[in-house]
Please model this.
Amino acid sequence: MLSQRTRYTIRAMLHLADRYGEGPVQLGEIAERQNIPPKFLTVMLSQMSREGLVGTRRGREGGYWLAKPPQQISYGELVRLTRGSLGLLPCASRFAYQSCKHCITEEKCRLHRVMLMVRDETARILDGLSLADPVPLDLPLEQQVEEMGDQRRAF
Model:
């Protein structure tokens, strides 16, 4: 499950992606339109700034903007930056691996194997979608998945 922090970060980054190239976007606008507490938003955008994904400017004409084009920022990157891993279990994490406590050996653990497959499929989807990719809100989910796959194959 994605944390509230991760969901807020993705929504804020999508807001900046929608305004890409228009100059600084004020914190208050992002907070209000995305229903994110301003203090929490400041912390999240500061982290994204340190990671080189967001630019900032102080002052009356200041605000936030994407430091990279939206097509260069994937959902997978944002999840990893805010959550640490795409793995659902510590033993299925590629970058934050830890063996599970109170478990059988990984060679015998079928759950471990399943979670590796889940992690890899999740990575394939989230790393394949950028902030610039359209996600229609008015289509049934199954049709969205099919159309997004068709769009990816066209490139």
The first strand starts at residue 54 and ends at 57. The chain has a mean pLDDT of 86.
